[in-house]
């Protein structure tokens, strides 16, 4: 299925117009004979990583850019940050063409990749790297000290500021990379799996900081993450990409409606659940001594809720969408057409 609900800003900061990226990759056959022949006659095949992707993101928006592994998310991020040149279409960020990599453009954006956290030269301490960043991005000294103080508190940097980057763990390196990326107060943040390696407490602190940063500065944030709880916490809007193509652009609640035709009714009863014919109300999903979970078609939820309250000794009743993680897992497994 192809999902559709556009959610474009009238005053975009980030625009992608028909973006495409095709790689030319060598074909390698197994065996010594094939290896020798490949020296004389090289074979290649085209890999379409991104195909005709278009969207727009406005100032102050925090947008989740989601999809399965290999969907084209990181490739799109690299195009928007200017690391890759698209083979089709065009991109604009803050009015700049990213691939030109102008200094004025680079000082207004930041790209953070959780898979390759860059915390600066490994021989320098974290604080030295922050000073180095200050010089590169012309950050006034007074603003530098204020920003470092805020980032130290938010990302718990106090114990690692004086340590060499090479001696940091993955989680510590990730926190340092985030601090360095945010030091110059970028107007656009490209966050590619930014909380890889962070524990639950650090991840929560990071989410709070990003939400507050976007609210206070009006920064635009494009976030890729496989942690749906992170997307739910930060992103009112999501863009879903699969096999290099855009499949959905809209709100999270609307995506949930598209992905799942049912809701979950969790019913806690005053008496044993065994005395009730639950099949008369919906599909039984889970049960224990005094609580059941029913799958009920969305259109039937009001009527079924009313019947339950009238006919069953209900102590508590909640209505919820299925967990987003479960819905996305089902979606990725089924694929889209």
What does the model show?
The protein has 337 residues and is an alpha/beta fold. The protein folds into 2 domains: 12-25 and 47-257, P-loop containing nucleotide triphosphate hydrolases (Rossmann fold), CATH 3.40.50.300; 261-320, Alpha-Beta Plaits, CATH 3.30.70. It contains 11 helices and 13 strands. The protein has helices at residues 32-40, 73-81, 103-106, 126-136, 141-155, 170-182, 200-217, 228-234, 252-259, 301-311, 324-334, and strands at 12-26, 44-58, 62-66, 88-93, 109-113, 188-192, 220-224, 237-242, 245-251, 262-269, 283-287, 291-297, 314-320. The protein has a 6-stranded mixed β-sheet, with helices on both faces. Helix 5 (141-155) packs antiparallel against helix 6. The N and C termini lie close together (5 Å). 35% of the residues are buried. Residues 4-9 have low confidence and may be disordered.
Number of extended strands: 13
Give the CATH architecture of the largest domain.
3-Layer(aba) Sandwich
Give the rounded overall mean pLDDT: 86
Total number of distinct structural domains? 2
**What's the N-to-C terminus distance?**
5 Å
Might you state the CATH topology name of the largest domain?
Rossmann fold
What's the alpha carbon Rg, rounded to whole Å? 24 Å
Low-pLDDT segments, ≥5 res: 4-9
Q: Output the CATH class name of the largest domain.
A: Alpha Beta
CATH superfamily (homologous) name of the largest domain: P-loop containing nucleotide triphosphate hydrolases
Q: State the helicity in percent bands.
A: 25-40%
Within the largest sheet, what's the order of strands? 5-6-7-3-8-9
Q: Count of helical segments?
A: 11
Return the string of H and E elements: EHEEHEHEHHHEHEHEEHEEEHEH
**Shape designation:** globular
- Which percent range describes the beta-strand content? 25-35%
**Sheet with the most strands, sense and barrel status:** 6 strands, mixed
> Structural class given helices, strands, pairing?
alpha/beta
